[in-house]
Amino acid sequence: MEYTEVKNAHIVPRSYLKNFAVEEKIMLIADGKALGGPISIDNAAIRKRFYRRFRPNGEPIYDIEWSLSQLENVVAPMLGTVATNWPLPSEEKHALAEYFAYQFVRGPRWKAWREEMAREEIAKHRRNPEPVLHKGIWIAQTQKQINQEEDRLLSESEWLTRMMVIANRLITAFGSMRWHLIEFDEPLLAISDHPVVAWPLAADYRRPEPTPAGLGVLNFLEVRAPISSSLLLLMLWQDLPDASEILAGSEDIAANANAFTIANAERQWMHLPGGKVPIAEGYLDPISVGLVPSFGRPEVEASRIRHTAGHLLEQKIGQDIHDAVDENGRMQAQIVPPPEPA
Questions:
Q1: What is the DSSP code (8-state) at residue 145?
Q2: From CA 220, how far away is CA 337, in angstroms rounded?
Q3: What share of the chain is helix, strand, coil (3-state, %, to 5)?
Q4: How far is the C-alpha of 121 from the C-alpha of 111, rounded, in Å?
Q5: Are 122 and 153 in contact (CB under 8 A)?
Q6: Are the C-beta atoms of 217 and 170 separated by less than 8 Å?
Q7: Burial class (CB in 10 A: 0-12, 13-18, 19+), 24
């Protein structure tokens, strides 16, 4: 199959950015500096050939970019109808869970973290090379062999494959969590080049900062994803169907969400032209604390759905990621259904 070359890869899809734009123009803040006026969403949240990898013969291939685009084409029309279709049908929820799972790991921040972990493991291995078994004889590994392993671990194909492996696990987590939708009376929300934010289960309060690397998909207290400048998705480990009522958002909630969305950015964050963007400072509570009565760490730790999701994820250990992708480039991930109403 031939894949189209993509020189300017969107790490946040155009269809997503459109919900924070006016006539496809968006305000962009890059490296802490605001541009003079709105720019085209074509020039926001892009990186050069970011999802390109290479075949064994050295030929570039854009199959990952193609796979991401297949999902984006499915989800694009859903993003504008989340509020009117709420609570979402299971098929739409599954598609959006896949969409936000990729959004969690498809950017340069996660790529850099994975490369750092790989380099640390290689450095440990250099200091203490483990012997390998060859034809019944244990042979010490050479630095040349370790160099080859380092090249493999740091290759484009390896990080993109790992991205898909982790996304597959995140789909199970995101899709199994209970979803709440928060709606604001005016456009208050920002988006960034890493817009999906997870709150660590062990943290009672935090200053605005990036989502900790290597947190683990079961160790989320809450996950936030701005859908548009006036809609925020909140995912929680609760043994209940998705909330049927849309929650009313306040400026304080928007300021809390924006603080972490912006802190999670690698380089850029964006917002609606002319819109107000409140940004909270100092130590902050999880959003769920004031919105969802009695929710907290004890409920998460006791969640049967979370426990079942953990068993599903254990079964995926060592899975060949190609077995989880269908002919349309879409992930096939299991999701724990909510309990039947009593």
A1: H
A2: 18
A3: 40, 20, 40
A4: 16
A5: yes
A6: yes
A7: middle
Closest CA to 37 of 28, 46, 45: 28
Quote the pLDDT of residue 193.
97
Q: How far apart are CA 158 and CA 258, in angstroms?
A: 33
Residue reference for tokens 């031939």: 2
Query: What does R_g of the chain's alpha carbons equal in angstroms?
Result: 21
Beta strands 268-271; 39-40: pairing state: unpaired
**Listed residue (48, 47, 42, 46) closest to 21, CA to CA:** 42
Q: What percent of the chain has pLDDT over 90?
A: 80
Tell me phi and psi for residue 238, to 5 degrees.
Answer: -135, 140
Give the residue, 146 or 340, on which the prediction is more confident: 146
Burial string for 61-85 (b: 16+ CB within 10 Å, else e) reads bbbbbbbbbebbebbeebbeebeee
